[in-house]
Design a protein that fits this description.
With 328 residues, the protein is of the alpha+beta class. The protein is built from eight helices and 16 strands. Bound molecules: (3R)-3-hydroxy-3-methyl-5-(phosphonooxy)pentanoic acid. It comes from Corallococcus coralloides (strain ATCC 25202 / DSM 2259 / NBRC 100086 / M2).
């Protein structure tokens, strides 16, 4: 009745931005990401505890944060088809939370896989991806490593909306993602609120959906060919389009700050000098730089020169995995 799982975050190369179903977390469009190592979240779940308790990153979770964790475990109880009793959850990550890095993705992926294992359910990446999605959309892409594609699906019950691995972490071992932490603060508008506002008010939103859906198979082809330059261009274009549709919302939503723009500008100059480095940007000010192993040190140096207070160098990460050592 106890299981512990380690999962990695992921960074979307083609972003998910906007839900067609808020309760089930069903997206309007498909997305594609890379799982990132070595950063990770470890989560232990135990059923049959004296009462429901949720500890996230050293603090007792409250309110909606706690509810999201317990709701996911309720879904595990339904899958198990038996009374598992109250649950104790402890989760710890080793990277800055809520700063534009998808910490919730790793957290909910670990929770889904650990929850099913603690309930005695067999390992099943599709079932775990669907469960993780219900905690946080992007989490469905962290159940497996490498390059994962979240297929939007058509069904109203969401059973066809989950992520599948297109290429494993070893397919492009030379690829590097360098997270440039320009601002450690919590983001002002959570992605869940930002995307809702964008869906409801941005006149550009329908164009975003159509474009992003079409970019997924193109990104897949470029990853197959390991074409860094074309993938870098696609990532930048997709990030700009996500941020443009948000900028056009009412009230406008701007996740970039002046340091973000400064770094982006600098990347352009570096590329003219032959340094292969591109950016992507989630719902926060901290760009993630896409480059190769030969240039990751240069990418870190230019991030620091542009004001990064911290830099996390990442390689393609593996699947969410069960550990034998528990957090309690
Ligand atoms: O799953 P959420 O609620 O953390 O939303 C993630 C949204 C982006 O990070 C901006 C894009 C993505 O696909 O990960």
């Amino acid at each position: 009745m106890k299981a512990t799982v380690r999962a990695h975050p992921n960074i979307a190369l083609v972003k998910y931005w906007g839900k067609r179903d808020e309760a089930l977390i069903l997206p309007h469009q498909s997305s594609l990401s890379l799982t990132l190592a070595p950063i990770h979240v470890t989560t232990t779940v135990e059923f049959g505890a004296p009462s429901d308790t949720v500890e996230l990153h050293g603090h007792a979770a409250r309110g909606s944060e706690r509810d999201r964790v317990l709701r996911l475990l309720d879904a595990v109880r339904v899958q198990a088809g038996r009374d598992l009793g109250p649950a104790k959850v402890v989760s710890r990550g080793d990277f800055p939370m809520a700063a534009g890095l998808a910490s919730s993705a790793a957290g909910f992926a670990a929770l889904a896989v650990a929850g099913r294992a603690a309930a005695g359910l067999p390992q099943d990446t599709r079932a775990s991806s669907i469960l993780a999605r219900r905690g946080s959309g992007s989490a469905c892409r962290s159940v497996q490593g490498g390059f994962c594609e979240w297929m939007r699906g058509e069904r109203e019950d969401g059973e066809d909306s989950y992520a599948v691995q297109r290429f494993d972490a070893g397919h492009w071992a030379d690829l590097r993602m360098v997270v440039a932490i320009l601002d450690r603060g919590e983001k002002e508008v959570k992605s869940r609120d930002g995307m809702k506002n964008t869906v409801e008010t941005s006149p550009y939103y329908p164009a975003w959906v159509k474009d992003a859906e079409a970019e997924v198979p193109r990104a897949r082809e470029l990853i197959a060919k390991k074409d860094l330059e074309a993938l870098g261009e696609l990532c930048e274009r997709n990030a700009w389009r996500m941020h443009s549709t948000s900028l056009a919302a009412d009230p406008p939503l701007c996740y970039l700050n002046s340091a973000t723009l400064g770094l982006i500008q600098h990347l352009r100059e570096q590329r003219k000098k032959g340094v292969p480095v591109w950016f992507t940007l989630d719902a926060g000010p901290n760009p993630v730089l896409l480059t190769d192993a030969a240039h990751e040190v240069a990418a870190e140096a230019l991030a620091r020169a542009c004001g990064a207070v911290d830099v996390v160098r990442c390689v393609p990460g593996g699947d969410a995995t069960l550990l034998t050592e528990h957090l309690f």
